[in-house]
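Fold it.
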Amino acid sequence: MNVGIIGLGYWGPNLVRNFLANSDIHSLYGCDMNPARLKFIESKFPSVKLTTKMDELLLNKEIDIIVIATPVQYHYEIAKKALENDKHIWVEKPFTSMSSQAEELIQIAEKRKLTIFVDHTFIYTGAVRKIKELVDKKVLGDVIYFDSVRVNLGLFQHDVNVIWDLACHDLSIMDYLLNNKVVALTANGIANYYEHENIAHLALYFENNCFAHFHVNWTSPVKIRRVLIGGKNKMLLWDDMLPTEKIKVYDAGVEVDSPELVHKILVQYRTGDMHSPKINDTEALALGVKEFLSSINENRRPLTNAYDGLKVVKILEAADLSIKGKGKLIEINGF
């Protein structure tokens, strides 16, 4: 297959490298409006055919796949034109700016029998795959909370707020791990520097009494990438900033005696050993590319597909409504 990558900024070189490394790829084309980015890619990957004109990729009948790595405001327009020209598409997160756009792209793809891959990269990391295994095997027991912190002194995005930029990572991870139906959410945030919120908190409620909380911030003096998952049997900590032992499973929990007698409830705390399981260190993006190409060849939905992307966008839209209402509870039809 031949691939065209539109957008060669921060993430572009990683995409170019991983697609080139896959034996199913015959030729790779790249497009960016910034000549400096084309010059950089040319110096690193001289085999890539480069242009500043997007239509040279979208209308090229030899290209089978279009990879969209532009700001989110351009995802829908480029993705629609690619699908209408019979290209399979890979779209960076978040999938689209609005859920209505995502739904339209899904309809076009299904009508034309084309594949949409949404790059929720963390789903392909060894850490998340190991956590999924532990959750599915009920090692933690029934999950009662998911608590994530993703903060740093980072790059302000000009087109989206910090929830759209950072929380979408952990929302996709949460959805993959828990597969629970969200019924409502609240979000609070503030914009200290310009129109988009740079710090925010998001809380999700599920139909099975599970709870999730997300703290995201572009203005933290330290970089933190941490998730706590609490189960009724065990609890798990994933710290993605650690070089080793990123996942720790604690034999710890809460035991309640006589729950039927509220006034006599006795809470006991249980602490035991900590276990750090071995995780696969294969690059996530390489596994994502492999999954995408396999899904095309096998005519099936990829692991991170358009419906998963749509689900995350719907949550992000609801979060915006809640922030505008200063933490207003937004009910969601379970999905």
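The chain has two domains: 2-114, 123-280+314-331.
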